[in-house]
Amino acid sequence: MESEGALNNQRELTSICFKAFMLKNSTKSNLNLYDHFARVLTKVMDERPENVVDVIEDMSREVKRGLLMDKQSTLRDIPLAPAAQLLAEQQRLLFSRGGGDDGDQEVETPLPNVSEVGFFLEQAGVGLGREEMLRVFLALKQLVDSQPLARCRLWGKILGTEGNYLVAEGEYRDGEEEEGINEETAEDAEGEPRDDDEEAEVVEVIDTLPRSTFKPPPVVPKEDNRTGVNKFTYFVCREPGLPWMRLPTVTPTQITAARNIRKFFTGRLDTPIVSYPPFPGNEANYLRAQIARISAGTQVSPLGFYQFGEEEGEEEEEGGRDSFEENPDFEGIPVPEMAESLSTWVHHVQHILQQGRCVWVNLAEKPEDDFEEEADEEGKEEADEPEPEVGPPLLTPLSEDAEITTTPPWSSKMSSTLISQFAIAVLRSNLWPGAYAYVSGKKFENIYFGWGLKFAGEVYTPTVPSMPQREYTSGPEITEALVPSLEEEQALKAALEEQKAAQDETEGLGGDEEEEDDD
């Protein structure tokens, strides 16, 4: 019995020594065999691979490599994935087939045939290339699947200094458009609530100060959705596969300010616009204003493709027609004639007036609450009513467009003079470089590829800041005198003393004469 107990004690001592040996860390990797075996066995129990005896060496190597990579990360930086790889991973989702692609092919879809547009643009010598046009095609399909659009088309691509914008033009189905946030309400919500006592104190302080008689000019109201410059909704994304962002509606003030500045786009919608005159908004608003200006000046179609409806023809006001319809009897115009004459092209987007709207609004009209004040001012001279501003009506030929200096507004050509029977007519805008249009029989399209800037002539001169306003009229009574020198002060003091002495002497002589008269 004593021998068995001694044997057990010896075995226990041996196991303890062997465990201590296994817990000894390596001088190279700072790892020990005991912990490594525990990790390998844990990995075997978790994964339970087949023929584990054949892959135990590989699993041991993977466990050791995983520990070494974590320790080596402080010595060697893990290379980051390049931007092209990240973009490719996002664009890979565009090529995944959705579940609703096996439906009836005869159902009308708002998705445009971008492949056909790219084919004609390639003949015209412009475009984005077949590979990028295919990705844009799939991106538009993604947009159409996520938004309830009744119409969608590729508007173009606007270049920027840090990134570009792919622009899609869409029109929501009736009753499906989301209502925008009221800007005035959003601005009011930013302010903190104020107590009534504080408001009363502020009013008392303001009443003691002089009141200004300046009245700001009335704000031009913006046009409603589906009308004028807000007729269509625009979506932008930086690259195909990235999420589409909906641009806000545009206001007349933003269009007027955009006409007076020239700014390159950065590719970030939240970038503030720093300019003179100041622009009311960020880059998203400026981008929307430029899109409206480009569309109004460069969206054209063949003569006769669109026609006014019967109801529109009864309107008497010039330029009052704001809608049209396709002409089912249009048979197309020969390509050589479209390439030679600008009279065969017409504008099908309303002209933007100087007011920043497509439809003029009279700002001199007073609300109904002011009728009593008008009755009290019957004796005063009535102000002259402003003349309504009228622009060129819809479907006006391009031959009537105005020039900038000596530059013609348009240039036209045929895509090929060698094979003219299969050529297309190409139209290029010189006032908005990057705007193109093509026509082939009954098919035509407008597209824009550029920086979003209008041609300003040979020399561009920025707007000069106005002169600062005078606060008062200069005069001697308010002009501060110069500080006299020491010599001038001493001379003035001596002159005053001499004047005082002479005055005292004169008063003394006058007193003696009065005493003599009394005697």
Sequence-ordered SSE layout with sheet pairings:
Elements: H1 2-22, H2 33-47, H3 52-72, H4 83-91, H5 114-124, H6 130-146, E1 149-158, E2 165-172, H7 183-190, H8 196-207, E3 233-237, E4 245-246, H9 252-258, H10 283-298, E5 300-302, E6 306-307, H11 310-313, E7 325-326, H12 335-340, E8 345-347, H13 371-376, E9 410-414, E10 425-429, E11 435-440, E12 443-450, H14 486-518
Helix pairs in contact: 2-3, 5-6
Protein described:
The chain is α+β, with helices and mostly antiparallel strands and 519 residues long. Among the domains are: 70 residues, no CATH class; 263 residues, no CATH class. The protein is 36% helix and 11% strand. The strands form three sheets. It has an eight-stranded mixed β-sheet with strand order 4-3-2-1-12-11-10-9, with helices on both faces. A two-stranded antiparallel sheet has the order 5-8. Strands 6-7 form a two-stranded antiparallel ribbon. A hairpin with a 5-residue loop joins strand 10 and strand 11. The protein is flat and about 150 Å long.
- What is the residue-averaged pLDDT? 82
Question: How many β strands by DSSP?
Answer: 12
Poorly predicted parts: 179-206, 312-319
Biggest beta sheet attributes: 8 strands, mixed
Share in β-strands: 5-15%
Structure in a nutshell:
This protein has helices spanning 2-22, 33-47, 52-72, 83-91, 114-124, 130-146, 183-190, 196-207, 252-258, 283-298, 310-313, 335-340, 371-376, 486-518, and strands at 149-158, 165-172, 233-237, 245-246, 300-302, 306-307, 325-326, 345-347, 410-414, 425-429, 435-440, 443-450. With 519 residues, it is an alpha+beta fold. It is flat.
